[in-house]
Design brief:
STAT5a/5b_DBD, DNA-binding, transcription, alpha+beta, phosphoprotein, STAT, elongated
Length: 753
């Protein structure tokens, strides 16, 4: 069912919330008449933080205007006349509003559609207990919403009690003033004749006695009202704190954890709209209760009555201030993290958001946010509230930004778009630690006031750890540090402590997540693939997955110590595979054409039972980012079959000629393991032959893969071909074609054999 149809069936508070989404910035009539078109557009595909996406937003704006104009033109008859005028007016209005900033239209529509979806989902959860939100936590969401309803009722109850107290106190003051007036009259009786004085004094004394009895009784009643109201506020604040703990310490922390895992290739952390809605409700209710407590304080000062209420009110004031402070400081968050591998002299961006900024009217005096890079030790000192003397560990350019309020979405955020790390100051390294293991963080801080300067907040938040590099060659080791930190850090840790050892299955999960994300594939690492990786990491020969379940792998084994007999680490090898796959072999992996994670002996065992010409693709054990072809064929030097292995191809080779073309060139490769004709698998990726004359009549040359099998002196004793020699002709032709025209033919005799 279309979202708009479901949204129109909302009732009560949900319907009011839905209606409040619309106004002059986006009329509800536009939503109604263009519902199908609006829901079909790729709003989520546009990155609001990327100014280069503005042309896509402009295209959507133009499409919206055209659809409105078309809808207006189709209105016929007397009833359609007014609608035609109205829709035409909306088209002009929207064009005028969003033409200068089309990304704001995208922001507005995304917010509307997301909020409608949330409201519809919540309504569905309430009516169907068996169903729930996408994340599968219907009970928790229902519990949060039920608690908010309970808090609303409690806050309304204390508001009613406060009004009752106020009215009672006002009447008490009137009666007290009447008592003072009677006392004044009694004092003035001395000046009148005795006979008259006795008569009047008797009546006044009677009225005074009656009033004093009433005042004493009513004073006790007022004190009781104050005490009961304070106790109700205690219960409300306790529930508010509990609700805040659920939202901030559970839901928001979980969002931050998803954000951290997204840095390793995990699923997106999701939007913040639901969390912001909850935090705004919290802020609203906390502020209402704070104002109520302040009014009770005013009443107490206006009419002091001895008792425990004053001390209780002081405690309530401190509690509610503590709760609002915790909410504000906890909801100053990083919506878009800076890159975790940060290269100096390179532009980068980040977005900081205050989830309660709109509700507390912080945007009325927009605060400025400052970004600073600090070391791990400085981050530790900061969290201990130690004086860091405004130290930093480097210089960030364009590191100040004013928070902007987006009225259509109600978000208050600061978008740092052109920051650049000019320099970095490194600390002394410990033991074998390299520069790519040193962690920094970007500190974002701001200061603002709420409630007419009643409360002033100095808020700070730290980014996920970043590793600073100065050259691209450091990227893979820096990525290893980030991956280990993102995968294995614990919530609430001391910056930036991670375990030195983890269980092998934990690392498998992180590697699989990273691999699927980088290769952009639903085909992750199989159990056999993970066994191969375990064998490599632990120098083991066991093929049983259960043998590795309880084994631990250390950081040193992961990316500090070289693999036995190699000059690279486990991670460097694995990262090389990822780079090769995502740059050149993504499609072949997704097709299942690459087995990849096999050693030479496994390949031989698999191929020897297959017909000659059967081949498979496996990653090289000896070369980072290498892949080799193994195939079974006759040995021309002996009367037996054997498995041959080409020297590995790398990214450099595939930038000259693709894998599909190379396999097509090699006629002795017939079937991809186990038995697929190679044409069925690779032909659609091959470069079409080009025999036509180009330019001024010349035929374009082609490079082909050639391997000589029979009596080839380049064949080593293990059946491997050295591509450094077999590709001589291809490389010479390539170099020849790159030469300037005037020198190409002068050296022809030395380039082509």
């Amino acid at each position: 069912m279309a979202l708009w149809i479901q949204a129109q069936q909302l009732q009560g508070d949900a319907l009011l919330q839905m209606q409040s989404l619309y106004g002059q910035h986006f009329p509800i009539e536009v939503r109604h008449y263009l519902a199908q078109w609006l829901e079909a557009q790729p709003w989520d595909a546009i990155d609001l933080e990327n100014q280069q996406e503005e042309f896509k937003a402009k295209r959507l704006l133009d499409g919206l205007i055209q659809e409105l104009q078309k809808k207006a033109e189709h209105q016929m008859g007397e009833d359609g006349f007014l609608l035609k005028i109205k829709l035409g007016h909306y088209a002009t209005q929207l064009k005028s509003s969003y033409d200068p900033c089309p990304l704001e239209l995208v922001r507005c529509v995304k917010h509307i559609l997301y909020t409608e979806q949330r409201l519809v989902q919540e309504a569905s959860n309430a009516s169907s207990p068996g169903s729930g939100p996408v994340d599968g936590t219907p009970q928790k969401y229902q519990q949060i919403n039920q608690t908010f309803e309970e808090l609303r009722v409690m806050t309304q109850d204390t508001e009613n009690d406060l009004r009752k107290l106020q009215h009672s106190q006002e009447y008490f003051i009137i009666q007290y003033q009447e008592s003072l007036r009677i006392q004044a009259q009694l004092s003035s009786l001395a000046s009148i004749p005795p006979a008259e004085r006795v008569q009047r004094e008797s009546g006044l004394q009677s009225r005074k006695s009656t009033l004093e009895v009433w005042l004493t009784r009513e004073a006790n009643t007022l004190q009781k009202y104050r005490q009961e109201l304070a106790e109700k506020h205690q219960r409300t604040l306790a529930l508010l704190r509990k609700q805040q703990t659920v939202i901030i310490d559970d839901e928001l922390i979980q969002w931050k954890r998803r954000q951290q895992l997204a840095g390793n290739g995990g699923p997106s952390e999701g939007g913040l709209d639901i969390l912001q809605a909850w935090c705004e409700k919290l802020a609203d209710m906390i502020w209402q209760n704070r104002q109520q407590i302040r009014r009770v304080e005013h009443l107490t000062q206006q009419l002091p009555i001895p008792g425990p209420t004053e001390e209780l009110l002081t405690e309530l004031n401190a509690t509610v201030t503590d709760i609002i402070s915790a909410l504000v400081t906890s909801t100053f968050i990083i919506e878009k993290q800076p890159p975790q591998v940060l290269k100096t002299q390179t532009k980068f961006s980040a977005t900081v958001r205050l989830l309660v900024g709109g509700k507390l009217n912080v945007h009325m005096n927009p605060p400025q946010v400052k970004a600073t890079i600090i070391s791990e030790q400085q981050a530790k000192a900061l969290l201990k509230n130690e004086n860091t003397r405004n130290d930093s560990s480097g210089e960030i350019l364009n590191n100040n930004c004013v928070m902007e309020y987006h009225q259509t979405t109600g978000t208050l955020s600061a978008h740092f778009r052109t920051m650049s790390l000019k320099r970095i100051k490194r600390s002394d390294r410990r033991g074998a630690e390299s520069v790519t293991e040193e962690k920094f963080t970007v500190l974002f801080e701001s200061q603002f006031s709420v409630g007419g300067n009643e409360l002033v907040f100095h808020v700070k938040t730290l980014s996920l750890p970043v590793v600073v590099i100065v050259h691209g060659s450091q990227d893979n080791n820096a990525t290893a540090t980030v991956l280990w930190d993102n995968a294995f850090s614990e919530p609430g840790r001391v910056p930036f402590v991670v375990p030195d050892k983890v269980l092998w299955p934990q690392l498998c999960e992180a590697l699989n997540m990273k691999y699927k994300s980088e290769v952009q594939s639903d085909r992750g690492l199989s159990e056999d693939n993970l066994v191969f990786l375990a064998q490599k990491a632990f120098s083991s020969s066991s093929n049983n997955p259960e043998d590795y379940c309880n084994m631990t792998i250390s950081w040193s084994q992961f990316n500090r110590e070289s693999l036995p007999g190699r000059n690279f680490t486990f991670w460097q090898w694995f990262d090389g595979v990822i780079e090769l796959m995502k740059k050149h072999l993504k499609s072949h992996w997704n097709d299942g054409a690459i087995l990849g994670f096999l050693n030479k002996q496994q390949a031989q065992d698999m191929l020897m039972s297959k017909p000659n010409g059967t081949f498979l693709l496996r990653f090289s054990d000896s070369e980072i980012g290498g892949i080799t072809i193994a195939w079974v064929a006759e040995n021309p030097n002996k009367a037996e079959r054997m498995v041959w292995n080409l020297m590995p191809f790398t990214t450099k080779d595939f930038s000259i000629r693709s894998l599909a073309d190379r396999i097509s060139d090699l006629n002795h490769l017939l079937f991809l393991y186990p038995n697929q004709p190679k044409e069925e698998v690779f032909s659609r990726y091959c470069t079409p032959p080009n025999s036509k004359a180009v330019g001024d009549g010349y035929v374009k040359p082609e490079i082909k893969q050639v391997v000589k099998v029979e009596n080839d002196p380049m064949l080593d004793t293990e059946g491997e071909f050295d591509l450094e020699e077999t590709m001589d002709m291809a490389r010479q032709v390539e170099e020849f074609l790159r030469q300037p025209m005037e020198t190409q033919w002068s050296g022809q005799h030395s380039c082509i054999k």
